[in-house]
Amino acid sequence: MDAQKLLSSMCVSCPTHHEPVHRELTSSSGLVAGLVILPSLVRTSFAIDRPIHSSIVVLAVCGACIIGLDRTRALKDTKSHRHRYGPIPLEDANDRLTSGNGSIHGEEGVGKQSPLSSLRRLRLVFLILVGALCTRVEVLHQVVRGVQCTRGSYYPFLPFLLAVYDFAIVRRHRQGQKPDEEQDATSFQAIFARLSRHRYMLVFSTLLLGLCSSLELSATAPLSSTYVCASTLPAFSLVPVYQLLGLFLDALILILVFHILDLSSDSQQSNVNAHRIIGWALLLPAVIWTAVGAVICFANPDDRRWILYPERIYLWGLFNLTLAICVTVLFALSVASRSRLVSFSFLVIFTLTGLAALTSDWGQHVQVLGFSDKLKFVFVTTVFVAGILYAVVEMSAENRSRSSTRNTSGVPGWFLYSIAGLLIFRVLFGKPYLGQPSSHPIDILIGRAHSQHDLWKKQASSSKSLSDAVAVYRQRYHRNPPPHFDIWYDYATSRSSIVIDDYDNIHNDLLPYWSLSPAEIRQRTWEIIANPWSDAGGVHVRAGSLEISANMPGTHRWMVDGVTHIMENFVEWLPDMDLAFNLNDEARVTVPFEVLEPLKEASSRTALSEKLGVAGFSQERSPGWALIPEQPITDSRFQQRSFQRTFHEFGAVGCPPSSRARKERLWNVKDLCTTCAAPHSLGHFLSNWTLSASVCHQPDLADLHGVNLSPAAYKGSHELMPMFSQSKPAGYNDILYPSAWNYMDKVKYAPSPEFPDPPFSEKENTLFWRGATSEGVSPGSGAWKGMTRQRLVHLTNNVTTPQLILLPQPRTNKPSYTLLTPTNVAALLNSSVHLVDGIARCGGRDCPDQVKEFGGGAPRSDFQHHWHYRYLVDADGAGFSGRFLPFLQSGSVPFKTALFREWYEGRLTAWRHFVPLDLRLHGLWSTLAYFAGVDGGIIEGRVGKWEAKAKEAEDIAENGRKWANTVLRKEDMEIYFFRLLLEWGRLTDDRRDELGFSV
Ligand SMILES: *[C@@H]1O[C@H](CO)[C@@H](O)[C@H](O)[C@H]1NC(C)=O
């Protein structure tokens, strides 16, 4: 297809008679292609984050394109048929009205009109169109802002609305006209013709389309996420109203656009340049909204930065989206100028809903909603009936308007039939995403965890002597062990550590730092400590003793005190050096993938040499570490991002550029992203804890965790800054060390006679959680709605949407995914999940909003009260959860969900030592149902009965307790830290490539 043809096919003011067939085909194919591409583009576009900005650009560009193309076309036409275009288009708009043929705006019927009234009318139509478009932008804005509260989709009923309009306004005025009878028609055609003349036929067929499309959409719609749509807030009821309003506005806009198109195309001598008018109608709202933006900018300096400086990633998204929308609109306009209003909308909606159904995670709902084969049959036939009815109506319309220059169908019929065919095929043969499992997935996962744990244990402690350990070290990490490795080995074995070989976490954390020279590392450490703004505590190791840097904020003193407390156990063996400890809970360092990968590669290349190392660190190391100046420095390579979204600028940059986390913005937080969870899930359940930590395949996490949404303290860097942190999400480059929090027993497992830890069977069969809203700060932006803790409390107490749960079937008691109302869920499963201490870390309207939704918070309960319950939820706070270790040590089962990972990652096996939960929390009920058991008798026989799996739960509790007391003891923290600092000592040594322990 050459550009010339493409251009002319998009051209919109083309005279419609003698339309070349290929041009028609091009524009309808273009429209179809646009409809195929647009939904998926919009679903993942960064442009939707700023709906008004984006609307302005899209409207302006589309308007300008339409006008521009029209100009080009007009210029060309003037050369060939000079007579066709008059200089003043608007004035003669009434020409076609007086001919009164098939007009859409029938209010005034077919009467004679003065030129003036018709011109006035055109102006009126234009103004209403501009107004409707302006309002539509704001409605879009409101819907996007409250997208978690949207309900279904009303779009399938758009053709119905238009048909009603057509019926009520247009056809009523055609009563007088005699439809052209097809005298010589075959009997088949005659039946069609008679059927189609029935007054209600069009209305009826579009209604049928609406019903079966919305059935189809609801059967294939994604599940609801756990993102909070609070029923106590206005958005809960307002957003659906906005959705409806949007539907009516769209109907109005379509009617008006077709009205304008009709003016130009129905009459042979028309001089109304419809497309230029439409172009201006698009441009004007863009101008109006820009003016509104300018006023807001002027009046509200706080918003100025946000309004004027969009992020680069947004601009790129906007560019793509604008291009796609405008090309589609141009094609659509070209198709629209040849088709009728109702059929145009029918085709567009049919295509969109059909595609949505085709591309959804098909089947998860079809089965859940209990669609039996019979219903499937009904479903398929409705699609057919709607299609046939449509064909009937179209045919009749064609008959009727034979005299008019418009033919009726815009989109090729074969395309519609192939969509219908594919749909039917999928209904009949589609493989469901969440199939009904034959056995319970958790049984499989527990079995798998058993062998996984054994494997891990074997490789972590294979060496039986120091020389073994050295050999294994060289084999695993391609280097000599650091100096004093023998002392470390003695330290570890004398404290009966069973983990001798597996220190992959240390290796992975330090690997990138090998790309920096020792001097550079020392310089950067100095930069961090010398500037108190970095929120870091400095610790100096000199001649086997420790000193804490002077310029340390007092509030975090305990943390660094704790660190030195651990280090004192082995400090005599450490070389002179300075260390920077992160005082914030949030992690700090993410180097973009593009930068980091070459560094890692270079670091691996510098690794081993067959040479044996020189034992002992360099002497005289202390001069290498510059003194911390009295006067703090002010330069910093950290950027302040507290209270801001951090996911795309920091959290995801460690992912490959082609990964979903880098490319997709899943702004529609209402939908559960099943494709994001699928790689690490088995049905509803988390199957791979390691993989679930990676954000790269999970773009939806941008809206599902406090640290991504609005962290309390966030100073991040894209450069390798040697920062020691207690925990970090995967993809960060902080160096993990064992937190002093647990070492210093800030929270402790200590049952007492008052709060005993009873035998498992005597614990209450209930899911228990208490906590504060401290995951992030919600400063008025509504960020709390996505935070894990708030979602957890909402899900267990206030949820309004039906919940999908894996439950026993009524008679067979086989597992089966079932939708239950929240009331029924509450009747089946016990939970006690509440916020304590009121609502903290909020600002603006987010404080009262949360109080409305969650109440003031339950009274504080003693930490040791936890052991009264069987199932304890553990969720991240601003960083890692400090309670997890006590939970493990207890006789209860921890249900852990986390983005943050700690030093011991890998030592615990999910489903053996704890029960993992996806951050989306969508499998929470299913998991609880498995362990706690259900008795469906309570809710009229829709659910069967499962005994509580107390044996399995108790096993996990006991295995967790034993293993925690084996590899997560305080001794294990010391051993890890000791080894880490020996490695760090070597890494910062100028002779690091020669150094190494050898036997
Ligand atoms: C879990 O994911 C990790 C990382 O992708 C992978 O190496 C490992 O093989 C997976 N484990 C299982 C049991 O699939």
Automatic annotation (TrEMBL):
<comment type="similarity">
    <text>Belongs to the glycosyltransferase 90 family.</text>
</comment>
<keyword id="KW-1133">Transmembrane helix</keyword>
<feature type="transmembrane region" description="Helical">
    <location>
        <begin position="313"/>
        <end position="334"/>
    </location>
</feature>
<feature type="transmembrane region" description="Helical">
    <location>
        <begin position="341"/>
        <end position="363"/>
    </location>
</feature>
<feature type="transmembrane region" description="Helical">
    <location>
        <begin position="241"/>
        <end position="261"/>
    </location>
</feature>
<dbReference type="InterPro" id="IPR051091">
    <property type="entry name" value="O-Glucosyltr/Glycosyltrsf_90"/>
</dbReference>
<keyword id="KW-0812">Transmembrane</keyword>
<protein>
    <recommendedName>
        <fullName>Glycosyl transferase CAP10 domain-containing protein</fullName>
    </recommendedName>
</protein>
<keyword id="KW-0808">Transferase</keyword>
<feature type="domain" description="Glycosyl transferase CAP10">
    <location>
        <begin position="697"/>
        <end position="991"/>
    </location>
</feature>
<keyword id="KW-0472">Membrane</keyword>
<feature type="transmembrane region" description="Helical">
    <location>
        <begin position="52"/>
        <end position="69"/>
    </location>
</feature>
<feature type="transmembrane region" description="Helical">
    <location>
        <begin position="414"/>
        <end position="434"/>
    </location>
</feature>
<dbReference type="GO" id="GO:0016740">
    <property type="term" value="F:transferase activity"/>
</dbReference>
<feature type="transmembrane region" description="Helical">
    <location>
        <begin position="375"/>
        <end position="393"/>
    </location>
</feature>
<feature type="transmembrane region" description="Helical">
    <location>
        <begin position="200"/>
        <end position="221"/>
    </location>
</feature>
<feature type="transmembrane region" description="Helical">
    <location>
        <begin position="282"/>
        <end position="301"/>
    </location>
</feature>
<dbReference type="InterPro" id="IPR006598">
    <property type="entry name" value="CAP10"/>
</dbReference>
<dbReference type="Pfam" id="PF05686">
    <property type="entry name" value="Glyco_transf_90"/>
</dbReference>
